[in-house]
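Milestone M4 deliverable, item 7.
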Amino acid sequence: MLDTQAAPHRARNTRRSITPTGEERTWSRDELIVSKTDARGVITYANDVFLEVSRYSLPELVGQPHNIIRHPEMPRAVFQLLWDTLAARREVFAYINNLASDGANYWVLAHVTPSYGAGRSVVGYHSNRRVPARAAIERLTPLYARLVAEERKHPNARAAVEASSRLMAELIAEQAPSYDDFIWSIIGAEEI
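Output delivered:
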């Protein structure tokens, strides 16, 4: 693994527009993608698996907001839920479709936790991502497409997130008592 603790911790604005190619990438089930961020979500560490799958170099990732790998077909509501959960100092599991630097996408089952410093203050976040089961992706794809479609009906990001977050809560409530219960109903034995 590569240690980037000495790297600058300020966000650089070097994000470029990447067009999804439709190619889906995966990696070995016995490997984990690992990253760390500061409290603002700026990448401070990325392991070799992250670099290989995302097709970014370490200098391209460190100092960038973690959303550098955000796929345009990924609902903002999922990220809102993720950040709200982390703000409550709780771990979160989420299925996320990411975008590599070459336009390929790669699905992950992410486990994100707060990292604590002196006085139990949150100093950043740690994320392990594993290969998700195909059945999980197939179950979530229609839900995510519906959320993205809802977001596109609204004139700005704030309105889009509010509307898709409401819709996501309604759709999950039809299937499970909570988001956590919903995710655990999807997670397959091969994913844990």
